[in-house]
Amino acid sequence: MLFKDQIDFVTQHIKKNKLRVFMTVLAATMGCAFLIVLASVGFGLQESLRNEILSNETVTKIQVYGDKQFTEDQVQEIKKIDHVETVLETVGMNASAHSFLGDRDSTSSLILNDMKDFEQVNGKLAEGVYPSKPNEIVVGYHFAQTLLNEADRNVIKEKSKKAEADGTYYNGSDEGYKKTLIGQSINISLLPNTGNNEETEKMTYTIVGVMEKPSYDWMIDNTIHMDIAQKPALVENFSALGATTEEELFYSEFNIFADTLENVKPILEKLKDNGYSVYSVTEQLEQMNVFFLVLKIGLIFVGTIAVLIASIGIFNTMTMAVTERTREIGVLKAIGASPKLIQRLFLMESTFIGLLGTFIAVIISYAISFAANAVLPLILKAATGEDAFATNDITFSLIPWQLVVIAAGISIGVAMISGYRPARKATKIDVIHALRQEL
Fold first, then answer.
1. How far is CA 352 from CA 1, 14, 167, 339, 420, in A?
2. Angle at 168 between CA 164 and CA 172, to 5 degrees
3. What is d(CA 223, CA 107) in angstroms, rounded to the nearest whole number?
4. Per-residue pLDDT tens for 409-434?
5. pLDDT tens string 180-201
6. 235, 198, 281: which is closest to 112 by C-alpha?
7. Does residue 383 contact residue 343 with C-beta atoms inside 8 Å?
8. Sign of torsion, CA 193 197 203 209?
9. CA separation for the pair 101, 177 (Å, rounded)
10. What is the value of pTM for the model shown?
């Protein structure tokens, strides 16, 4: 029998029993769609958490924790490790910086870095350039917003009261310094974090750059970044307030940066072997991936149960097909059709049901996924009043091609298995008995 004739044999039965085949395809579609949509939740949550972690971290950064203080020789030794881009020392102060510009002022933290290393790691600024002189500084993205005068503070106070009455929060984004900060000279005094309200003498610096906007909308960055060469000047300025040692005034944090994400793990392992206490966000991602792998396997297993339930319908449909076509099977055997051919005819029918059901299920699953990602944030925003849910940062459902392949394999495989027993039954029908059967 030609392949075309085999197709005709299958399609004739499908056309003859349209309603029954349609209901069977519908059951297969629902089972496969349930599997894909359910598993897509695991993929979506993993993608959301991964983006959440990566948006707030430099993926090539390796943090050194503990009381480890590198010597210059150790820094040079680490820099010689393959694929290490730089070793950045970030020096913080146990004091706040009180900045003045005209009648405006702001309180912020002060960070000291080697500006060449800082530029290499941080990259592009939102505005301006990196410092090239000792008296030049870079400020955080919201520094201008936090430069307030008395009028601004009164307005913010009134707007905050109104926002609080409405159950919301006002962040003062409409107030602050509205002109460009680039080229502006500001006076900075230092206030120790010891409860003493006495400030140091003011020092004058020029703003030459503004940092990029933080990843999260709720973050307010008004940090001042200064070259580490200013350390002696800051110590001298502080000495007027009393005996303060450099160790009491400053604390250091060392971060090692790889050239690419792929090289983070080898560097991390080598540093651990050399006795350094280090951590990278890639370790957190690995732990998260293991957790979500188990979760996704569990969701696929639960979804497979729905596909197995749908297979009962396929089994019943194919069993009825064999019963109804007993005489046709007898005729085929009488004219020399082999058992393998008869078995293949019925397996083709069950496979067709699985293929069609899977194809429709994939289309429906993508539509449900798209609708869930579009509608659920709006529902959550209406229910909670949180604007964060209205953004596109949260992915509730994600269907990668790998999930489609897995679901299709399970669905079509189950359909073929469901049709196998009825197909085997068809090959065992006695020719004489089949030909004697009344039409």
1. 19, 10, 57, 20, 13
2. 85
3. 9
4. 999 999 888 888 887 877 777 667 66
5. 999 999 999 988 876 666 888 8
6. 235
7. no
8. positive
9. 9
10. 0.65
